[in-house]
Specification:
This protein is an alpha+beta fold. The chain has two helices and ten strands. The two termini are 25 Å apart. The relative contact order is 0.22.
Length: 162
């Protein structure tokens, strides 16, 4: 039987159990946050667009922001049988999608998303096992609930598993 592929949209998150697979398409400056409990085989994937919900007055979509999407993802995973102490993370995305390099903070969204993700994971005690971030190209990712494989696909840079 072929596993079910569950699509995670932009500013969205989903949780699944073995043997399902989570995927999100077109990560540019957004960051894909993959959380996995290998003991209970529960996986969660968030597609976060912005680093910090506190910086915006219209922050009702908690899945749009790195800080709130990670905490919500952990809660949803625990409801599905994960245990926080078993959860590990991998991340992808956070690219600089504009042609020019800039020191302007507002243009560094990809870098800021990655920095916020690393900070929040550290604060929550979730180990970051691997990352495929930065550069200037988009990524599509798949998270396998069977074993925590995080497959990153790109148009011009091939396929990588972390």
């Amino acid at each position: 039987m072929k596993p079910n592929m569950i699509i995670v949209g932009m500013a969205d998150l989903k949780v699944c159990k073995n043997p399902e697979i989570l995927t999100t398409l077109g990560l540019g400056s957004c960051v894909g946050i993959a959380l996995y409990d290998k003991i209970n085989k529960v996986a969660g994937l968030a597609h976060a667009m912005l680093p910090d919900s506190a910086s915006f007055t219209n922050n009702s979509n908690r899945m749009k922001f790195v800080d709130t999407s990670i905490t919500d993802l952990i809660v949803k995973m625990c409801v599905q049988g994960a245990e926080k102490r078993n959860i590990k993370a991998k991340i992808a995305g956070g690219a600089q999608m504009f042609a020019h390099s800039s020191t302007n903070e507002s243009m560094r969204i990809g870098d800021r998303n990655v920095e916020a993700t690393v900070t929040i994971l550290r604060k929550l005690g979730i180990p970051l096992l691997a990352k495929e971030t930065g550069d200037t190209y988009g990524r599509t990712v798949e998270l396998y609930s069977e074993d925590g494989r995080f497959v990153i696909k790109t148009i011009s840079h091939g396929i990588k598993t972390i």
